[in-house]
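Q: Hi! First time doing this. I have a protein sequence and I read that you can turn it into a structure. Is that right? Here it is:
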Amino acid sequence: MKPEPLSVSAQAFQFLDFTLRPSLRQLSRGGVPLALGSRAYELLLHLLAHAESVVPRDELMQAVWGDAVVGDNNLNVQVATLRQLLGREAVITVPGRGLRFGHRVRLVDDADPASELPARPSVVVLPFSDFGAERQWAWFADCLVEDVTTALSRFRDLFVVARNSAFAWRAQVDEKAGERAGERAVEGRDVRSIARALGVRYVVEGSVRFVGAQVRATAQLIDAVSGSHVWADNIDAVIDDRSAMFAVQTRIAAGIATALAPQIDAAEAARTRRATPADLGAFGQAQAAWAVVSAGEMAFDAGPRNRAAALAREALAADPSCGLAWRVLAAVQWWHAYHGTTDDFAATVAAGRDAADAAIAIDAQDHHAWRQKGLLAFMAQDPATGLAALRHAHELNPNCAVTLAWLSLNEALHGEAARGVPLAEAALRLSPRDPVRGEMLCALGFAQFAMRDYAGAAASAQAARLGMVNAAPPLVLGAIAQVGTGDLPAAAATFMLLNQTAPALAAARLAGRWLSTNPDYLTRAHTFLRVAAGLAPPEAADAVR
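A: Yes, that's right. Below is the predicted 3D structure, encoded as structure tokens:
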């Protein structure tokens, strides 16, 4: 009597160190997915399901090709493929009877790895499609993916799958579609299955297209759990000289990674808002806290900061080693000190510095924590420590446009003033569609003010206000810049709005508390704001303009 086939319902097959998961149509070895065409897969699945039997060749032909009329040699080709991949003893020919599988097979539960996603937002960058590249530049798309993966890994809040694991999916090809001429792309891949297999939420796909000296890289971000499309964009470049290929590759990779990181942050913030605290865990609560403080940081209202602090403390109660929660507390204290929403300025700054140091002690590569350390040092009138910390944060992650913008601002206010504007412009070029573009425009404006470009500073303030509703910094910048240009009525109106929006901050600046150790900047900013407030005559501005 012929043995009954093994059941494949909610189960996977294991043999040696291989696992075949029918739910994903995936063969892996040691947890790493292997390339296997659909015909070879169907043949292997049928042999495994009848592992105790010798299966007739006609039955295998029917299982793999159905009613299609194909030659017997097609089966031989797929058998050879399996033997090359699994070893010659994996498929045994029984003369006159058929084929049988040569290894002992075990059935195991086919657990879904997506049910245990990493606490951090998780992402894989899949191999990019390559259109139109000359053969000597066929490596470009692969190297671009490697650079994007490396750049994303610098964002410490992300869990990024290694390049080798991602490239295991290169040859997951839909054989019915085949490969188009000159194209090394993976056809018809199922990003949900890939994400489940790798245990990630987000998948990045893309392509590189060459037309003469022009190259266009296109990337898209997919939430593979929900199936939603999060973001897509393209970057164009011209390769005037073949020797510039590496520079172009680096610039494109940085542009993609810099655009991706805030989009993942935004998607995660939306997800945590929908989840209940019990579903989030310690890191999830800290992540929700970071989203809250980031969204409300420029607002005078202390409510969002207080909510963020409460979430961070809950996360630390559950896990004292949660570096992100400590970083949130550092950011909360910084913004309380900045906006004047604290009764004890010195204690607030000290608590913030302690929290930043705690975050760094847990993860010394966290550029966000180093940025907070630097900002709080400036608040404590310790510019040497502040500049060193900000410069180090930028070195840790050159692709974080927000860190670069803060560095530009503080170079202008405390360091080499002439570096401020170029650094701010670099930040804006690096992330032209950044959700916090308003902050970067403010940094540019204050740097322009430091260099006496009052018209430029006024324009930057106006642009920043479009993306920063009810925020005080662009109002401070606008008021002093408008006095600089001589537009006193506009300056007076802007100051009135500032005083309505953030009275404590306006009072602090009028009292001489500015976040700068540059004497020339301090004199002009303080004098101009007093003129805008009607507390000093216009002639006072003329004397220092």
